[in-house]
Amino acid sequence: MSAAGRHLSVILMSLAVIFASGGATYLVWLSLSAVETISRDVVSLLSWVLAFYIGSFLMWRGVIRISRAT
Amino acid sequence: MEGRHPDLESNLNPVIVLAAASGTGLVSFRMSSFLSQRFKAMGITGIDIHKLNKPVTAEMGGVAVVVALFFGAGVLILLDGAADALFLSGVATIALAGLIGIADDHFVLRQRTKAVLVALASFPLSYYLLGGTNIVISFPFIGAVSFGILTSILIVPFALTTSANFANMLAGFNGMEAGIATIAVGTLTFLAAVRGMWEGAALGVLLLCAYVGFLALNWYPAKIFPGDTGTLMFGAGLVTIGIISNLEFAAIVLSMPAAFDFSLKMISRRPFGQRKLIGNSSVNADETLHPADYPALVHAFMRVAPTTEKSLVRWVLLMEAVYAVLAVALTFWFG
Description:
The complex is a heterodimer.
Chain A: H1 3-31, H2 37-69
Helix pairs in contact in A: 1-2
Chain B: H1 7-11, H2 14-42, E1 45-47, E2 56-58, H3 62-80, H4 85-107, H5 111-120, H6 123-130, E3 136-139, E4 143-146, H7 150-169, H8 176-194, H9 198-218, H10 227-244, H11 248-254, H12 256-267, H13 274-277, E5 282-283, E6 289-290, H14 297-304, H15 309-334
């Protein structure tokens, strides 16, 4: 992979994290349909924070893997 | 769709707004040029550690952005009667964040103190919103989420200090901070104008021109650094324009590159002590950058392939531009 391709992969990984964490949050929000609004919103927000943090961790693992492959 | 306060719409004259914006850009450029020499003579400087010859460069250039914003807002108020309370509270909030940045550049405030002070800087905007304006953030698929009374007393201060400190962390390279500010504020200004949110659009175009004027002197090789004055103001400006233009979700999307930087830094064992403990990134003999040994967004770009400072800044700005396109697409798609 070219240097530009490897740099681009950082941006693409970040987009993957954003969409995955957004999708996970939506699933949590859907699964809490019976819960009152405020609790549902707060739990959904916390689930996004957690998913984003885990996603960032996985993204950094991806960065290390790419850097070792070069 | 109506803005948070419709009065300004009828008052604004597009010719005067354009004149104020042009004047803001010019004042920012001239002021940055003046301060780059004046601050250097006064010893208000920093070392450009990502250059081989380690030049001494003027710091605290965000002062030029503060002055230019005051100038532009003053022109709008005097010539166009833009004395709208929401517009003024927005200007006051951004300017207060800038003044805290000046204090931080001068006295080097503790991280905790800075976070509290920036949260307090939201007082003008929070006070205005206490008057009954409720913030409703529309999320794709989920829909509108209302925060009620918590908006003024909790959400606005928290959002302001988070955004300002995010902006303050993704920094340290020629043209990066001002470039990100230009793309992000430019995108919000465009969205605010397209949706008829004139208070936010007017404030946004002034801030945009102020950062463009400053960027001319801050671009590689920089003659002046923004300092915390420039970064805190940008973070505060993004949230302020987002809130007064009903574009909170777009502002969140535009903050994502900085949020990634923050989240990556949180992975390490000493999230706020890495720079003291491990040190900064450095420059190799071939002018490529060597990342410090802790997770950060800029270090991710440096690790995957050799990159110079100029190239790094272009990649980070491309990332911000990608998120700007995403913010525009999601705003139009989900309304």
